[in-house]
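Hi U.,

Before I forget, here's the chain from the pilot set. I'm dumping it here mostly so it's searchable later in email.
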Amino acid sequence: MCYKTILVQADAADATSSCATLAAQIAITEQAHLVGVSMSGVDQMIYQCNTAAPGVVVLPADLTTLTTRADASLAAFAKRVEHLGVGSFETRRIDGLPDLELLMQARYADLLVLRQAGAPEQTPYMPDSALQYVILHCGMPVLVVPYAGGPGEMGRHPLLAWNGSPEAARAIHAALPLLKRARQVTLAVFNGEETWGAHGELPGADMATFLARHGVQVEVVQRQTREPVGEALLSLASDIQADLLVMGCYGHSRLREIILGGATRDIMRSMTLPVLMAH
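Structure:
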C-alpha cells in the first residue's frame, strides 16, 4: 500500500496547524497529492433557519460570511503547504453536511487526516459525532491529530496496538508506508492470553513475522494490566517516547463503547500523540 491522495481537514483552526503540517510532511515523503477541505456550514445554516422559521428563504447573501470564512481558511492552508514544499495540492470547500461530504471525498483518498474532536476552537460545522461517523464508515485509514501540542515529527517511533482483531490488522496494514520509514517500531500486546483464538502460541510473534517480511523490524512488548487498555497504551506511548499510535477502532459496537467504555473512546478523549485508526 502507498499514499497517493491524502485528504486533510483545513478549517480555520486547522489550516496552519498540526493537521496541515503533518499531512504536508506525509505528502512530501510519499510524493502524494494533498487535498485540503474546509466545511462552510451552509447546509446547517439553511436547515436551522427552516427549522426555526419554516418557509423563510435563505438568500445567497445571508451565507456570504460562512463561505468567505471557509475560503479564507483554504487560502491560508494553500499558503502553508506551498511554503512547506508540497508539490501537488488543491483545496475544496464543503457546503453540505460534513460527515456525508467527507465520506464521499474519502472514496478517492488513501488517507484522511482529521483533528481530534472537542477542541476549544472546534468549528461548529464539524461536530464531534462527525469524526466518529467518518472513521466508522469511510473505509479508509484516518490519522487523528490531537488538538493540543505542536506538530513536531511523526513516524520515527510508532507504537502498534495489537489485539488480534480485524480492525487492528487493517490499521497496521494501512500504516505500512509509515512503518517502513520508521527508525524503531514497538508492537504492544496487553493481556494477550485473555482472548481465546486471538493470537498464536506467542502473542505478537505472528504479526512481528508478517511485518519483518515487509522490512519492518519490531520489538514486541507484552504486558498484563488491570487498567483500561486505552490508558495503558497512552502510558506506554509516553514511556517509550512514541510519536505515533496505530490501532484498530470500535472493535466492539459503539453502543457498548458508550455504555461500558472502551479503548477507542479513551484514546479519542485523551490522545497525546497522533493516532492512525482503521475500522
